[in-house]
From TrEMBL:
Catalyzes the GTP-dependent ribosomal translocation step during translation elongation. During this step, the ribosome changes from the pre-translocational (PRE) to the post-translocational (POST) state as the newly formed A-site-bound peptidyl-tRNA and P-site-bound deacylated tRNA move to the P and E sites, respectively. Catalyzes the coordinated movement of the two tRNA molecules, the mRNA and conformational changes in the ribosome. NCBIfam families: EF-G (TIGR00484), PRK12740.1-5 (NF009381), small_GTP (TIGR00231). SMART domains: EFG_C, EFG_IV. It comes from Wickerhamiella sorbophila. This is Elongation factor G, mitochondrial.
Length: 747
């Protein structure tokens, strides 16, 4: 079992964890029991260190002000000396947008990591505690969703930024779904309160209805739009104003007379909302007692960490209003590393994986996750989250996937594209290192055969051909190899028929950015073909097969016979392979070869040459020749049987269907509806705001090429849209025929 992989000193701790938590909890209440028990066994110094640590991300819909918000956080925490704006309007650009393309386009392409310290002052006692905050700013564009995925995978909490005018938008919903996937609690910041049409109460209502989570304001704005002056803290009943040229000083004052009634109303609503999700607050509420400010803060913290509630703050990052209270909320309401249940995989000698709980304790054996790679000035930079144990400069660590050992020559903390050398990083910390040959998602240990569970990676939906204009194929190869290692959603393959390199990704912008980066970072200009849709093939009826592969060419020949059924899979998005051979007619070794043949066959379907989706292959009989049968013969026979049965099982071509969200000024609504109808989109919902609208629709990806140009023309450049993969559906019959004919001509 595990013992052969572990140093003797490591065995007692891992086996104890295994005994104590052989069944992982499925509810937060169960998680809390495990977390409390692990915390009780932790040393006081270690617990104190992690209690003052926060690992958070900043996530939102595109253009909600995430990077602008992050810039203020860095300024107010003393991490930077001056505020710079997105899009490089001051010829500098936001600190966290370190890539030239990010500064030019005004979007975040890669998640950027930094750390800062925040002195949190307790309102009643005046006591000051210093917190260490690891911060990751993530992209808002759906094409770069993998950056959000891998950031949330390693974070303990998040700040969800919502626009006060637009409210909850399509990517807000996507980010929320990703947060739920990784059990990430969040506080919400309603940004852009200084804009015309700002309505925080509408935004909170949308959070409750669209994100389906209890939410309540902990602040009330003082003024609005151009007259935004500050906020009222409804927990401690105090007004907060930003003073100084850049809002660097917070001044407290009494609640304005005209807001006292609204503040009392919103405070009562906060208490009632908390009573619905927190047992202790419910008891206070039912006893008709007035909770103290400390009891409200404690209830918010419990409910937020339990992922049952999100406290809502408000302000304006661009106007330097009410950012410091968000930092206070991060410290008050989001969990430290010891309050989050992280699980790993205990890998036994035979390769079996068993989930285990990971105590966030520096005294445990080291286990870390390489969650992000990027090319730095000194070579490949690998970002690592330390889940347990310590990462020390000069120590040896093992890549669990490859078994390769590496000496840690340099350890750094990152601040955007700058770095600070450190000697060690303890449990709960995020750091980076150089000179490690690994891929995104690899786990590292110092001996224990353990790993982190894998990250969700969406399948690419769009492809295009690419080739260098010059003969500089060496730099071209370097570029695409590097980008593949850094980004799991960026795929590269070589098409033997067309002799072209094909790149695949999450959308047009995704691939456009990589083509531009190849040009800028490797000085290789490329020509690209028209984007191609990632079609799929499937079957709609079952078909039986009895296939014999036989070849004789002197000496030992090739012989294999397989029998069985091909049918639609139980779930349309998976492929299944099963065997039910009795009496040992086909050995396990040959059945394993059959499965490899099945995996080969689904890569290129016999109908149009695209990948196969949603099929189940069952082999229940066959025949072996004593001399001529081999693994290669059975692998080949399985491919032949699959292709033959597939064409007899009423095959069809599938195309990707996308969720589309279009936002534009109200005067362009009819033009946008007409444009969507022209593209055969099915409109599912429309939201009309004060001066803009959002239309939600479903549309074939094939019909969305060129939509960005058409939308700009129809809305005078003021419209924006997002595309997100929804599912695969049967393609129109004429399109299927066209694809089949095109494939048959190539044969």
């Amino acid at each position: 079992m595990l013992s052969r992989w572990i140093r003797p000193s490591c065995r007692p701790m891992i086996s104890a964890a295994r005994r104590a938590y052989s069944v992982l909890p499925t509810t937060y209440e169960g998680e809390k029991v495990v977390l409390d028990e692990m915390a009780s066994k932790m040393g006081a110094e270690e617990r104190s260190r992690q209690n003052r640590m926060r690992n958070i991300g900043i996530s939102a819909h595109i253009d909600s002000g995430k990077t602008t918000f992050t810039e203020r956080v860095l300024f107010y925490t003393g991490r930077i000396e001056a505020i710079h704006e997105v899009r490089g309007r001051d010829n500098v650009g936001a600190t966290m947008d370190s890539m030239a393309l990010e500064r030019e386009k005004g979007i975040t392409i890669q998640s950027a990591a930094t750390y800062c310290s925040w002195e949190k002052k307790q309102p009643v006692t005046g006591e000051v505690n210093n917190y260490h905050v690891n911060l990751i700013d993530t992209p808002g564009h759906i094409d770069f969703t993998i950056e959000v995925e891998r950031a949330l995978r390693v974070l303990d909490g998040a700040v969800l930024v919502v626009c006060a005018v637009s409210g909850v938008q399509s990517q807000t919903v996507t980010v929320d779904r990703q947060m739920r996937r990784y059990n990430v609690p969040r506080v919400t910041f309603i940004n852009k309160m200084d804009r015309m049409g700002a309505n925080p109460w509408r935004a909170i209502d949308q959070i409750q209805k669209k994100l389906k989570i209890a939410a309540a304001a902990v602040q009330v704005p003082i003024g609005a739009e151009d007259d935004l002056q500050g906020v009222v803290d409804i927990i401690y009943n105090r007004a907060l104003y930003n003073r100084g040229s850049q809002g660097e000083t917070i001044e407290e004052g009494p609640v304005p007379e005209e807001l006292k009634e609204l503040v009392a109303e919103k405070r009562q609503l906060l208490i009632e909302t908390l009573a619905d999700v927190d047992e202790e607050m419910a008891m206070i509420f039912l006893d008709e007692q007035e909770p103290t400010a400390e009891q409200i803060v404690a209830a918010i913290r419990r409910a937020t960490i339990a992922r049952q509630f999100t406290p809502v703050l408000m302000g304006s990052a661009l106007a330097n209003r009410s950012i410091q209270p968000v930092l206070d909320a991060v410290c008050d309401y989001l969990p430290d590393p010891t309050e989050v249940l992280n699980t790993g995989l205990d890998i036994s000698e035979n390769g079996k994986e068993e989930p285990v709980v990971l105590p966030s304790d520096s005294q445990q054996p080291f286990l870390g996750l390489a969650f992000k790679l990027e090319e730095g000035r000194f070579g490949q930079l690998t970002y690592i989250r330390v889940y347990q144990g310590k990462l020390k400069k000069g120590m040896m660590m093992t890549n669990v996937r490859t078994g390769k050992k590496t000496k840690l020559a340099r350890l750094v903390r990152m601040h955007s594209n700058e770095m600070e050398d450190i000697n060690e990083a303890g449990a709960g910390e995020i750091c980076a290192t150089f000179g490690i040959d690994c891929s995104s998602g690899d786990s590292f240990t110092t001996g224990a055969k353990m790993a982190m569970s894998s990250m969700f990676v969406p399948e690419p939906v769009i492809s295009l051909s690419i080739q260098p204009k010059s003969k500089d194929t060496q730099n071209f190869s370097k570029a695409i190899n590097r980008f593949q290692k850094e980004d799991p959603t960026f795929r590269v393959r070589y098409d033997e028929e067309s002799k072209e390199t094909i790149i695949s990704g999450m959308g047009e912008l995704h691939l456009e950015i990589y083509v531009e980066r190849i040009k800028r970072e490797y000085n290789v200009e490329c020509t690209t073909g028209r984007p191609q849709v990632a079609y799929r093939e499937t079957i709609t009826a079952p078909a039986s097969f009895e296939y014999t592969h036989k070849r004789q060419s002197g000496g030992a020949g090739q012989y294999a016979k397989v029998m069985g059924d091909l049918s639609p899979a139980a779930a349309p998005e998976i492929n299944e392979f099963e065997t039910a051979v009795v009496g040992g007619k086909i050995s396990d070794k040959f059945l394993a070869a059959c499965e490899k043949g099945f995996q080969d066959a689904i890569l290129k379907g016999p109908l149009t040459g695209h990948r196969v989706l949603g099929v189940k292959m069952l082999i229940n009989d066959g025949q072996v020749h004593v001399v001529d049968s081999s693994e290669f013969a059975f692998r080949t026979a399985t491919i032949g049987a699959f292709n033959e049965a597939f064409l007899n099982a009423q095959p069809i071509v599938l195309e990707p269907i996308m969720d589309v969200a279009v936002t534009a000024p109200a005067e362009f609504q009819s033009a946008v509806i007409g444009l969507l109808n022209k593209n055969t989109a099915i409109i599912s919902d429309t939201e009309v705001g004060q001066d803009e609208f959002t239309i939600y629709a479903e549309c074939s990806l094939n019909n969305m090429f060129g939509f960005a140009t058409a939308l700009r023309a129809s809305t005078q450049g003021k419209g924006e849209f997002t595309l997100e993969f929804k599912n695969y559906a049967p393609a129109p019959v004429p399109l299927q025929k066209e694809l089949i004919d095109k494939f048959n001509k190539k044969k």
